[in-house]
Write a structure and sequence with these properties.
mainly beta; Jelly Rolls; 179 residues; 42% strand; single chain; 2 helices; six-stranded antiparallel sheet
Length: 179
């Protein structure tokens, strides 16, 4: 696997070695040993999967302490724009974001450490999105920020009027928490 650094410290793009031939392809999507060597020790305890249609934007979500999560995300069907926003207290890149296109074709994965809000928009007809978390989900720690906050300047690549949001995400405030 190849580790690709982003402009924000800690956010990493992971490019697996994909072996393809006339039958299709094979790649190792997860190896604890290789991940520990390349990124550091993270013990994932929960895998999640969602299926969404074009225009769905999920996010920007995070868990507050003591349940903040690190995530390793990927798109196994279709294409998404995955976004992480730095909310780390005192970070020189506070409120800056990294956006990366994840798809079934490029097989890229995105590692998001604690202290980031996370979301994605679906760019294909449908998308199946998977993510590993290093802590269990706790509803009492669930939080998020407004994905359309103009200060964040995120281009979700979904035309106005085509975005599909949950009621909770649509009503989130333009708060600027520090984690």
């Amino acid at each position: 696997m190849e580790i690709i650094n982003t402009p924000i410290e800690g956010l990493l793009i992971i490019k697996p070695r994909v072996f393809g031939d006339s039958r299709g392809y094979f790649f190792e999507s997860w190896s604890q040993r290789d991940f520990d060597e390349a990124v550091g020790p993270v013990h994932f305890v929960q895998d999640n999967e969602s299926k969404s249609c074009y225009g769905v934007i999920r996010g920007l979500h995070f868990q507050r302490e003591p349940h903040m999560q690190q995530k390793l995300v990927r798109c196994v069907r279709g294409k998404v724009l995955d976004v992480a926003v730095d909310l780390r207290k005192g970070s020189p890149t506070y409120l800056q974001h990294v956006a990366v296109e994840l798809s079934e074709e490029n097989h890229l994965q995105f590692f998001i450490p604690r202290g980031f809000a996370h979301g994605f928009s679906v760019l294909s007809e449908t998308a199946v999105f998977q993510y590993k978390c290093d802590r269990f989900y706790h509803p009492e720690s669930d939080d998020g920020i407004q994905l359309a906050d103009p200060e964040l300047g995120i281009d979700w690549r979904i035309p106005e009027g085509k975005a599909i949001l949950s009621e909770k995400d649509r009503l989130r405030p333009c708060a600027r928490p520090e984690l």
